[in-house]
Write a structure and sequence with these properties.
The chain is an alpha+beta fold and 445 residues long. It is built from eleven helices and 16 strands. Helices cover 32% and strands 19% of the residues. Strands 3-2-1-4-5 form a five-stranded mixed beta sheet.
């Protein structure tokens, strides 16, 4: 059974790798992006009354100071806003009772204390029974109310209203994680930018074997991003993959890249208020000797096929409504039955590189994740399908981790997730011979 399953996979491989090289995409100018992203923000904020009702809440109270913003601020602010000014107090409501037709959210910006009698008067008119505040001890997006602000709320609002505050982190998580339709076309462009960066960076254009270091290449990616008007949420990490019993190293290695090396990159870009997270591998061809190479060894391709199969297993088992730990157990059981050894550590992505919601494993918690693994997977979200497969490579006499990551989006019609641009199913090849191609000599007439 294990053999037949793996043979079947080998037959269908190379169906999701993009058929054409990626091209750098133009993203909107800052002014264009402001209009687009503010429209997305308005659409998302308009859902909050429904979310309040879903979680049996009447209001959502956020209080923050300049330079000490609640994480939710970054998902509800205008494009042209930066820090929250002075003290910014925000009250979302259900558009019912005395607040029907009032601004939603209601916002106070204050440094005199006048916000508190106005807020108390609003609460007296509205009479909310359950007021969400972000004070969860474990879930970051539901934990943005700073200790100082919590003390001030207690002093200024008194027992009457603080006794009605509740801790409901899924309100914040679902608001931040849920996508709108307008996100996807631009997220596709961002994915193609990522692929174009990797295809150029993992080539003879950026790498000279025996000279270029992994650190040189990391900074090449950073500099290239600047020319494309995108930034990043984590420093690109490039490694020469060798046998390593420790967890995957996000700091990369400090190595001179040589022919015969298996390379790995882990990085993402930030643009349009969204983030990506991608891991690909490249092979540096041996160009000298009696048997120069023109492709990666078959043993490495076999390792890549294993990690590809693990990607499929995640997408086959992910379902909205299941917990991250339930999906993790299904995935681990399935790869074990197919004779594959590896780890899963997939996560939501969107407003943040590690976005709010259920995780499917952690590198250091391969069997079960407390708290975040117990959350249910939400529909209409983006996920980074992140994992590695173990595979023994005879030529190196080493068991290597084949580490991959691609971003996926939820498809309403099927209730499943699919890769936004496809996935890596063949190695990026670095061929030093292409650096040695002479420039044609042209006789001037």
């Amino acid at each position: 059974m294990k053999v037949s399953a793996f043979l079947w996979f080998s037959v269908v491989a190379a169906q999701l790798h993009p058929s054409k090289p990626a091209e750098y995409q133009r993203l909107p100018s800052l002014r264009e992006a402001a209009a687009i992203q503010d429209a997305w923000r308005n659409e998302r904020v308009s859902r909050i009354p429904s979310l309040l009702k879903k979680y049996n809440l009447d209001a959502w109270l956020i209080s923050q100071r300049e330079h000490a913003e609640d994480p939710i601020w970054w998902s509800i602010k205008n494009f042209t806003d930066y820090d929250a000014h002075r003290r910014t107090v925000i009250l979302f409501h259900t558009n019912e009772s005395s607040l029907q037709g009032q601004p939603n959210p209601m916002i106070w910006v204050d440094n005199t204390g006048s916000v508190w009698p106005e807020l108390k008067n609003t609460l007296e008119l509205y009479k909310p029974r359950r007021i969400a505040v972000n004070v969860h001890r474990d879930i970051a997006l539901g934990a943005g109310l700073h200790v100082g602000e919590l003390l001030v709320l207690g002093e200024q609002l008194g027992e009457r209203w603080t006794s009605r505050t509740v801790n409901e982190p899924m309100l914040a998580v679902e608001y931040v994680a849920t996508r709108v339709d307008g996100h996807l076309p631009y997220y596709r462009k961002m994915q193609e930018i990522i692929w174009a960066l990797i295809e150029e960076g993992f080539s003879h254009t950026a790498v000279e074997p025996g000279k270029t270091t992994t650190e040189d290449l990391e900074w090449w990616f950073r500099e290239k991003m600047q020319t494309l008007n995108v930034t990043t949420w984590n420093q690109p990490s490039i490694s020469v993959i060798i046998e390593d019993p420790t967890t995957p190293g996000w700091k990369g290695t400090r190595s001179i890249i040589q022919e015969g090396d298996l390379l790995h990159i882990d990085f993402g870009i930030t643009a349009m208020g969204m983030n990506t997270d991608t891991q690909h591998m490249a092979y540096v061809l041996r160009t000298d000797g009696p048997e120069p190479e023109f492709d990666a060894p078959e043993s490495l391709k076999e390792g890549l096929r294993k990690s590809n199969r693990m990607q499929e297993v995640v997408l086959e088992n992910m379902r909205a409504g299941l917990t991250g730990n339930e999906v993790l157990r299904k995935c681990m059981n399935q790869i074990e039955s197919e004779g594959i050894e590896g780890h899963f550590y997939s996560h939501p992505i969107g407003d943040w590189g590690h976005d709010g919601g259920a995780v499917i494993g952690f590198v250091n918690l391969p069997a079960e994740v407390p708290v975040l693994g117990e959350l249910t997977i939400l529909p209409n979200t983006f996920y980074s399908i992140e994992l590695h497969a173990y595979h023994f490579v005879p030529e190196m006499n080493q068991t290597l981790k084949f580490r991959q990551e691609e971003d996926a989006r939820w498809v309403a019609e099927t209730g499943k997730w699919e890769f936004v641009r496809g996935r890596q199913e063949k190695f990026h090849l670095i061929d030093a011979r292409r650096r040695r191609v002479p420039t044609p000599f042209v006789v001037q007439r």
